[in-house]
């Protein structure tokens, strides 16, 4: 548990702090959108914002004392290598990082109502995360396996909820 807190501990207070801010923003959006059914769209907006916070934190917040970003582009190096507690938590964290976006984004954006589009979008986001970590001096590990796990998590999240969101996405006239 101590290792989990050391790896992801800052994300939890950030999320708790952001929740009231996001709820206030959602209420402001609801006041601006006085259309029938707008609350469903706003709830999707809030959920997407809350799911994007950990991603933004992991891309933009530096770790360590000015360490250089390391790069591991060998497929399977982390997945099939030696496991210690840090590696296991990092792999699990990467698997679950984009899962909420895969579950929620099709509710928010009608054009994501196909598994192919969710898979393509999640692959682009996963590569974008790793690219951002490589370009910015944040001292994080840029790894092929991280992108693969992010993509897999988002796609699994979409697959698990597909039967639910395929019929419940907001109507076209509600898209912004």
- Measured by DSSP, the beta-strand proportion falls in under 5%
**Mean pLDDT metric:** 79
Please tell me the total number of domains: 1
The number of helical segments is: 7
Poorly predicted segments: none
Instruction: Summarize the main sheet.
Output: 2 strands, parallel
Overall geometric form: globular
Q: What share of the residues lie within helices?
A: 55-70%
Cα-atom radius of gyration: 17 Å
Structural class: mainly alpha
Would you report the number of β strands? 2
Q: Name the helix and strand elements from N-terminus to C-terminus, one letter apiece.
A: HHHEHHHEH
Strand order of the largest sheet: 1-2
Terminal residue distance: 42 Å
Entry summary:
The chain has one domain.
Keywords for this structure?
176 residues; mainly alpha; globular
Structure overview:
The protein is mainly alpha-helical and 176 residues long. The chain has one domain. Helix content is 67%, strand content 3%. It contains seven helices and two strands. It has helices at 2-8, 11-32, 38-60, 85-97, 99-108, 115-135, 144-165, and strands spanning 70-72, 141-143. Strands 1-2 form a two-stranded parallel sheet. Helix 3 (38-60) runs antiparallel to helix 5 (99-108), helix 3 (38-60) runs parallel beside helix 6 (115-135) and helix 4 (85-97) packs across helix 7 (144-165).
């Amino acid at each position: 548990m101590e290792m989990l807190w050391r790896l992801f501990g800052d994300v939890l207070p950030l999320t708790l702090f952001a929740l009231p801010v996001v709820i206030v923003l959602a209420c402001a959006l609801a006041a601006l959108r006085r259309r029938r059914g707008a609350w469903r769209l706003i709830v999707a907006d809030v959920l997407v914002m809350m799911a994007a916070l950990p991603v933004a934190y992991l891309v933009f917040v530096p770790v360590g004392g000015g360490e250089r970003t390391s790069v591991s582009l060998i497929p399977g190096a982390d997945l099939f290598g030696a496991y210690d507690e840090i590696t296991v938590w990092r792999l699990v964290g990467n698997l679950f990082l984009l899962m909420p976006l895969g579950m929620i984004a099709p509710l928010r954006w009608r054009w994501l109502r196909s598994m192919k589009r969710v898979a393509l979008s999640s692959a682009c986001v996963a590569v974008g995360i790793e690219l951002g970590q490589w370009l910015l001096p944040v001292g994080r590990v840029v790894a092929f396996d991280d992108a693969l796990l992010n993509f897999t998590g988002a796609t699994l999240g979409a697959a698990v909820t597909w039967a639910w969101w395929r019929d419940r996405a907001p109507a076209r006239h509600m898209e912004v």
